[in-house]
Design goal:
Strand order of the largest sheet of chain A: 1-2-3-5-4
Number of helices of chain A: 6
Oligomer: heterodimer
Number of helices of chain B: 3
Largest sheet of chain B: 6 strands, mixed
Largest sheet of chain A: 5 strands, antiparallel
Largest interface: A-B, 27 and 21 residues
CATH architecture of chain B: 2-Layer Sandwich
Order of helices and strands of chain A: HEHHEEHHHEE
Strand order of the largest sheet of chain B: 1-2-3-4-5-6
Distance between the termini of chain B: 32 Å
Order of helices and strands of chain B: EEEHEHEHE
Number of domains of chain B: 1
Low-confidence stretches of chain B: none
Helix content of chain B: 25-40%
Radius of gyration of chain B: 14 Å
Distance between the termini of chain A: 36 Å
CATH topology of chain A: Heat Shock Protein 90
Structural class of chain A: alpha+beta
Chain lengths: ~180, ~120
């Protein structure tokens, strides 16, 4: 193990108002357990349960998106690098922030950010219409999702979804998604 | 045909579909691993039931949270019921939600906007 300062990590989290964080490979049972912890934590923190359910919903869609994406890559030897998430839930003034980062293949970046850019242009009515349209579209054979996750997240956020793509090497990039609820 | 029964888990709903009475019930949370695989037998059962039986159907739902994959599967379930309804079947959907969970109410309303079958929303 390389030397790493937990104190400096701890201080960084405190300064950035990060309340919950997870870094590691995802499994369904981890998604469940961490989700229950998020809910219990927010139940004590928030007065209204709609905000708690929105944070939980964004958390579920982000983690399940990463897991579904990793599973679509299982044919590749390096699939495990795609199944690791860096997840943080924190406060920003009166809002909650759910941030997640994961490794994506360079070939997938353009389609992903194209979709988010499209969502960023839409207002609440536009997002609702797109959500309803997508909800009745037949699912593509072999797909693990309905193509609704990002739209659903965009509908639950108080600011447009934000993202960052940082190149790791010629094949992969680190994708960060930020949702402010 | 046989009834369909499933016990609830942390992330999947309890299911009780009775082909004799036409009472179909789902309750709990819905964000299972491999959502489409989870719902495939449920949708398969419903299609067979509609094709084989000619009785009234009541679908009662008490779902606190649905991930988007579950939303898609539920839309497919509603569309099967909507087709049966438009062909003259007596179909009723009852959506029960906790008064403290306004998001479950909104989810119900967004489904009912896209359907013509009788859709009752009840706070518990």
């Amino acid at each position: 193990m390389q030397k790493i300062s937990l104190l400096s990590l701890h201080q960084q989290f405190e300064e950035a108002n990060i309340q919950i964080c997870f870094n590691g490979p995802l499994s369904h049972s981890i998604i469940e357990e961490l989700g229950l912890a998020v809910r219990r934590y927010l139940e004590n923190e928030t007065s209204g349960s709609d905000k708690m359910m929105d944070v939980f919903a964004v958390y579920i869609e982000q983690t399940q998106n990463v897991r579904n994406y990793a599973q679509s890559k299982t044919a590749q030897l390096t699939s495990s690098i795609y199944n690791t998430i860096t997840l943080m839930i924190g406060r920003e003034e009166s809002h909650y922030v759910v941030m997640s980062g994961n490794v994506v293949h360079q070939d997938d970046v353009a389609a992903l950010i194209g979709k988010i850019d499209q969502l960023r242009e839409l207002d609440a009515a536009g997002l609702k219409a797109l959500y309803k349209e997508q909800r009745r579209k037949p699912v593509i054979d072999g797909a693990s999702g309905a193509g609704l996750g990002l739209i659903d997240m965009a509908r639950k956020t108080s600011q447009p979804l934000a993202y960052e793509v940082q190149k790791i090497d010629n094949n992969t990039a680190f994708f960060t998604l930020k949702a402010v609820v | 045909m046989e009834s369909l029964n499933q016990i609830a888990s942390t992330s999947s709903p309890a299911i009780h579909f009775d082909p004799i009475s036409g009472q179909l019930m789902m309750s709990g949370e819905s964000y299972p691993e491999n959502t489409f695989e989870f719902y495939a037998p449920v949708i398969g059962w419903l299609k067979e039931f509609i094709a084989e039986k000619d009785i009234a159907v009541t679908l009662t739902l008490e779902l606190a949270y649905l991930n988007t994959g579950s939303v898609k599967c539920l839309m497919d379930i509603f569309d099967i019921l909507e087709d049966a309804y438009s062909e003259g079947r007596i179909v009723t959907v009852i959506w029960r939600y906790h008064a403290k969970n306004p998001r479950a109410l909104e989810t119900a309303e967004e489904f009912s906007e896209d359907l013509t079958l009788p859709f009752h929303i009840e706070a518990i």
